[in-house]
Amino acid sequence: MNNVNRRDFLKISGSSIIGLTLGGVALRANAQEQVALDDPTAIALKYVHESKIEGAHCSNCQYIQGEDGKEWRPCGIFPGKVVNAKGWCSAWMKKAG
């Protein structure tokens, strides 16, 4: 019979829980889809993948989330979806500071 002491059991359990948690976060981050131009919210907010307004684009909007420098990033206006950093919508508001 294989004996597992309490310390080894806790190491294995802790590693498994951390692995499952981080794996789930990574899957959710990768599962986000790009906002389609025919999405009802995108239509209502006049979202475009490339802004025609100088100095106003998703990458400098207060609603953008995620890491700077990525082409597609999550947006608070479009839950569960990502927007193009070069995009724009009528909810655009310049990021403070």
List keywords for this structure.
three-stranded mixed β-sheet, electron transfer activity, 4 iron, 4 sulfur cluster binding, 97 residues
Written description of the protein model:
By secondary structure, this protein is α+β, with helices and mostly antiparallel strands. The chain has 2 domains: 1-31; 33-97, High-Potential Iron-Sulfur Protein, Chain A (Irregular), CATH 4.10.490. Helix content is 31%, strand content 13%. The chain is built from 2 helices and 3 strands. A 3-stranded mixed sheet has the order 1-3-2, with no helix packed on it. The chain is elongated and about 65 Å long.
Give a quick rundown of the structure.
With 97 residues, the protein is of the alpha+beta class.
Determine the mean pLDDT. Answer: 83
CATH homologous superfamily heading of the largest domain = High potential iron-sulphur protein
How far apart are the termini?
63 Å
* Total DSSP helices: 2
Task: Give the strand order, joined by hyphens, for the main sheet.
Answer: 1-3-2
Share of β-strand residues: 5-15%
Q: What name does the CATH topology of the largest domain carry?
A: High-Potential Iron-Sulfur Protein, Chain A
| Uncertain segments | none
What is the C-level CATH assignment of the largest domain? Few Secondary Structures
Helix content, binned percent = 25-40%
Specify the overall morphology. Answer: elongated
What gyration radius follows from the Cα positions, in whole Å?
Answer: 20 Å
CATH architecture of the largest domain: Irregular
Overall number of domains: 2
Number of strands: 3
Give a short account of the largest sheet. 3 strands, mixed
Specify the structural class.
alpha+beta
Give the topology string: H per helix, E per strand: HEHEE
Subunit structure: Homodimer.
Family: Belongs to the high-potential iron-sulfur protein (HiPIP) family.
InterPro entries: High_potential_FeS_prot (IPR000170), HIPIP_sf (IPR036369), TAT_signal (IPR006311)
Protein name: High-potential iron-sulfur protein
